[in-house]
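User: I'm writing a tutorial on reading structure tokens. Could you give me a worked example: one chain, its sequence, then its tokens, then a sentence or two explaining what the tokens reveal?
Assistant: Sure. Here is the example chain.
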Amino acid sequence: MIRVVTKDEISDLMFDQMVALDHAHWNEEDPCHLSKEYLESIFLPSKEGVFLALDGDRVVGYFNCIFVNMDMMHAYLESGDFEKLQNLHLQVGENVCYIFTCFVVDAYRGSGVMKALGEMFGKYLDEKEKEGCHVRLAYAEAVSEDGARCLRDGFLMEAMDDVDEEGLGHYVSRDGLRAYRKKVR
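And here are its predicted structure tokens:
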């Protein structure tokens, strides 16, 4: 039975499993590799923006995002340097969401894990909106064809000018993921 956890429900061990999966998929030579120190700096101690799918005690999929400002977004888009992005956390008012990673272990693909993660994320944004925290814009970078499909078909994001014929590049949700959230309700 798959269950999705977020924030305080995530133990240090679960967080470490997420990092290990991330590093197994994107090794140190890969330009998409994010160091453990960087991941800890943007997600700890609050674990806001981290959603983990568990089968028992084992992480089998994860989704994570951070909340940035427009200056950070533009600096990242111009440089491609992920470390220009720092988590400002979801705040009352207008926010920009950067979707970092959507990942499911191969054995669990097609089993509804990503759908469950996405539904939890949508519910989280809906709840935070009731508190006055609005996502004005969301963006992400597809670094694989699966990622492009997830952003385009799952999150209903549109391709930006740099997206190539394989779908790799940056995607944006100009409606702050509202169409996506409506889809997963």
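What the tokens reveal: The two ends are 21 Å apart (CA to CA). The first helix runs from residue 12 to 25.
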